[in-house]
Amino acid sequence: KVRSLFRWLTVKNLNKMIFKEQLTEDSPYYFLKGIKYGLESYHELFKRLCSYAGLSVKIIRGISKSAGYKPGMPFKDSKFSNSWASVLIDGDWHFVDCHWGARHVNNTEDYSDPEKFCYSLDEFYFLTNPEDMIYMHYPDEPEWQLLEDPLSVETFVELPVVKSHFFWYGL
């Protein structure tokens, strides 16, 4: 179920999707339209869909080394605030980041323009290993690092800035 929902959300190129003007508020397409125009988030829609499927999901809030982040930058304001999901499967929590799994920002300083998003599925963000996720995402609550020995935010800042390809190539 989790895999199906992740794939359904992440393989859609919202730049190419045209939505009807009138969509009912209980339609998944209503929420996809909201994501396209910045009114909804991937993780909230993922949580909603998982709830309909009888799955437990927790939205994790924290900071991330997202577009515009440079190595060693402090996290002073909300610019790098982020959210992602953790889903309960067979008694264990696993990370799922549908947003990062669906799209990334092209090299630009204007992150508000939806046309700057490049849609391409990145499987790395499905059931991501906590040991890898911590390089990019730092939760507000240390227990949601899902690590045996949680890191301090200072250690998180000192970690290199890497993305999924670093791990895909075993670097």
From TrEMBL:
It comes from Capitella teleta (Polychaete worm). This is Transglutaminase-like domain-containing protein. It comes from the Eukaryota.
